[in-house]
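User: I'm curious what two different proteins look like when written out as structure tokens. Can you demonstrate?

Assistant: Sure. I'll show them one after the other, since each token string lines up with its own sequence. Here's the first protein:
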Amino acid sequence: MKTIGMIGGMSWESSKIYYQHVNEMVREQLGGSHSAKSVMSSVDFEQIEKWSFSDDWGKIGQEMASQAQRLEKAGSDLILLCTNTIHLVSDHITNATRIPFLHIAEATGAAISAAGLKKVALLGTQFTMEKDFYTKILEDQFDLEVLVPESNDRKTLQAIIYNELVKGVFTEEAKKTCLGIIEKLKKHGIEGVILGCTELPILIPDEEVDLPTFDTTKIHAQKAVEFALS
């Protein structure tokens, strides 16, 4: 079994779900008392958040490169960045290390294509929804049509994520708001919904949406386990 290296802490609420997923998936596939071989290097999200809002992605990239190198030195065989938004600086990781890096948008795109869908909505932070690092992969590599919410709804999602979800606050009100945003997008003919923030699947269970949802955390973790057991 190969060792999965995880960069966590963005937020730790979702990082613990990554750890849970990879271990449960390994046990399901191998049985017995098997669990995943893994290393996690977890950052202080307060600083990452400040750099994000000051648009200082270069510093975030440097920090991610440093974390990835730490994982490589610790014996990891692949790197998993346990967040959607910070994949914006994934090139810093791939340029700083020699081991494989599993991109969350590529894993998600493959899952959507396997489901036979062509038009999907993307929910996440404003950075994920408005910058092209995520949608470009989905569109160019998987020929998907990607819709994002209107401007005010993007701002609302941003506030919910940073003021509540990353702090471990998951309310019925926030869930209803997100479901309302999805209802608006359904009028544009979407066939599925990407929960493109690693905390969103905690807030919105699959059964709450009457379209296929794509839990990027679970999809990403599954790809890592497939690699680790290959």
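Here's a second, unrelated protein for contrast:
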Amino acid sequence: MKKYGLALGSGGARGAAHVGLIEIINKREINIEVVTGSSAGAIVGAFFALYPKANLVRVFDRVIKKNIDIINSNFKILNKKITNFPKMIAGKSFLQNDFVYDIYKELYGRKRFSECKIKLGIVSYDLESGQEIEITEGYIIDAVMASSNVPGVFPPLRLGGMQHLDGGVLNPIPVNFAKKLGANYVIASDLSYQSNNNIKYDNGLDFLLSIDDNKNDLMNRYELKNANEIYKYPLTYSWVDFSAFNDIYIQSKSYIIEQLEREGIQS
């Protein structure tokens, strides 16, 4: 008997694609029993695990629109501060993560993993040990903060005696973690694919993150070997294009539907 798991990858604003995939999964009446997430995947996956029947696109669209000015303002500050690679590599973190905490508090409040309707696993990275951290208990907001803590952008988050950074550092798409939590059929959502290989970079951060995307692609291949269904999205949006949430969501849904139709699966 299939025990479905959903592994949601890292990718910033491109995480809107996860919302589209979950909507289609619900329409297909697939019963997800395990969800794992890294970074953007943790943000979407945690809310889905708490509220499987919620209208995710409505929830995330509302939260993003409410906070888009402060999101854009912070990333404009970030872009102004990054003028060359040495500053990016040797400098301190550029943003404080207080504004992110306030946004996450709207989504998760004080909910704990034990309150999830679906078994949840979130991935982060411990700066001191250099190890992947698999989080399955405690307050969800803490785990999501740890998993989405982009290196160089935000300072390490001290939690449980460790200094946490973005889960995508070591595991951009936690397929094997989903299997470890009991899933035997894993649907993977991979945000690393981009259709345009000639993307122009506005600043050093975008270029460094594109290099990081290439690294992630190699790690994804390892994880995706054990996935049973894989969805990729030929998106050209940057990881900070939160204003394009609805466009990313709509385009991603169309890609998923096209893939299912090619495979003869009713969406």
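A detail about the second structure: The chain has nine helices and eight strands.
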